[in-house]
Specification:
Order of helices and strands: HHHHHHHHHHHH
Number of domains: 1
Structural class: mainly alpha
Distance between the termini: 23 Å
Helix content: over 70%
Shape: globular
Strand content: under 5%
Largest sheet: none
Length: about 280
Amino acid sequence: MSITSAIFLGIVQGLAEFLPISSSGHLSVLQNLFHLSSLEEGHLFFDVLLHLGTLVSIFICYWKDIKDMAREVFIVLRGGRTITGERVSQPLSAARLFMMLVIATLPLVLIVPINGLVEELYYKSWFIGIAFLLTGCLLFVSDKMTPGRKTEKNMRIRDALIIGCCQCVATIPGLSRSGTTITAGIATGLDRQFAMRFSFLLSIPAVLGANILSIVDAVSEGIDVSLLPAYLLGMLAAVISGIGAITLMRLISRKNKFGFFTYYCWAAGIVTLVLSLGY
C-alpha cells in the first residue's frame, strides 16, 4: 500500500463516516469495483486504525459532552455528591444522555450472531448500490419531517431503543449509519441538532465494538511494520477529514436540509449499480 492510497482511504473513511453517505458502502465499492482497499490487500490492521481515527475525531469535537457525561455519571454513582462531598441538586442531564446512549447501544447485540452474513454483503456491489438509493430516500424523508423539541432532558427510553434498532439495520453496507440514526431521531421527535449530536455520540460504542471484534483477526493476520508510516498517515487523514465532516454536519443541521447528500446518494447508487453490471 502506497502512502497516497493510505491517505486517500483515510480521507474517504473520515468524510463518509460522518457525512450521511455510508463509509462502509464507499470503502466496499472502492474494493469491489476499483480494487483499492485496505481489506483486499490484507491490511486489516490499517482498517482498524482508520476507524480509530474517526473515533478520535468524535472525542475532539464532542469532548465537552464526553467530559460532562463522565463527571455526572461519577456523581450518580456517589449518590448525588461531587468528589468534595457536596450534594448536587440540579438535574444531571449529561448523566441522562449517557443512559440513553447505553440503551440505544444495546440492540447492537442482535447483530453479533449474524455478523458473518452482514459481512458477506460487503462484496455484493449491486446490493450496496440499492442501499445507497435507500439512504438517499431516508435523507429525503428526513428533510420533509418536522423536527421535535426533545433533547437529553426529555427523550424517552422508547426513543433511544428505536434509534438503536435503526442503527442495527444501518450495519448493512451502503446504508448510512449517521443518516439512518439522525432520521430515526427526528422521527421520534428529537430536535434536529440534538438528533445529530446523539447519532455521533452513539457511534463511539459502535466503533469500539466493531474494533474489538476486528482487533483479534488483525493481530493474527500480522502487522507489516514497514507500512506503519503509511498506516499512521492514513489514520491522521481520517482524523482530520472526520473533524471537517462533523463541523460541516453541524452547519448543515442548522439549515435543516440534507438535500445535497440525498442527490449524491441517489447518484452513487445508480453509478454503483451500472458499474456492478460490468464486473
